[in-house]
């Protein structure tokens, strides 16, 4: 049985956005409990040549809702605006992400699936895709990479997280056992 592009993307993205929202809350609580300045976590990196936690969280929006907007427009370019510098700002980005994803209908994504579009860094780089191939082979892997990197940064900094914190609320079926 074939599944729609919407089914392949939106529910799982919303699941992980919800888990990242809870990780942001746990990170802030950890800072407050341990007297670690918020900026230490928000600016934390796994490696010197990587971008910080705040960028990883913002990239969850970039590679989900913004990526779908890019397919609508026929082009996706990396968002180079500053990333949030507070836990409240990170929560705002994630709330915006969830709201934008929830507003995308199955019919709209199916309509965009075959649309020609490009990923571009103007003057430097260009890749041509169909909407479906862009979302499934470029944006979706990037989305999970940035969510996992945010999780990894928090673990590295001592925030008590488990695999369940990353998985978030799974879509399970009710048990047939009473």
Description:
The structure is a single chain. With 178 residues, this protein is mainly alpha-helical. The protein has one domain: dinb family like domain (Four Helix Bundle (Hemerythrin (Met), subunit A), Up-down Bundle), CATH 1.20.120.450. Helices cover 61% and strands 8% of the residues. It contains 8 helices and 3 strands; from the N terminus they run H-H-H-H-E-H-H-E-E-H-H. A hairpin with a 3-residue loop joins strand 2 and strand 3. Helix 1 runs parallel beside helix 7 and helix 3 packs parallel to helix 5. The radius of gyration is 17 Å and the shape is globular. The protein starts with a helix and ends in an 11-residue tail after the last helix. The model has no long low-confidence stretch (mean pLDDT 94).
Low-confidence segments: none
Mean pLDDT: 94
Please give the CATH architecture: Up-down Bundle
Percent of residues in beta strands? 5-15%
Instruction: Estimate percent helicity.
Output: 55-70%
The domain tally reads: 1
CATH C-level class is: Mainly Alpha
Using only C-alpha atoms, the radius of gyration works out to 17 Å
Tell me the quaternary state: single chain
Main beta sheet, described?
3 strands, mixed
CATH superfamily: dinb family like domain
- Across the major sheet, the strand order is 1-2-3
User: Based on DSSP secondary structure assignment, what is the total number of beta strands?
Assistant: 3
Morphology: globular
Order of helices and strands: HHHHEHHEEHH
**Annotated CATH topology:** Four Helix Bundle (Hemerythrin (Met), subunit A)
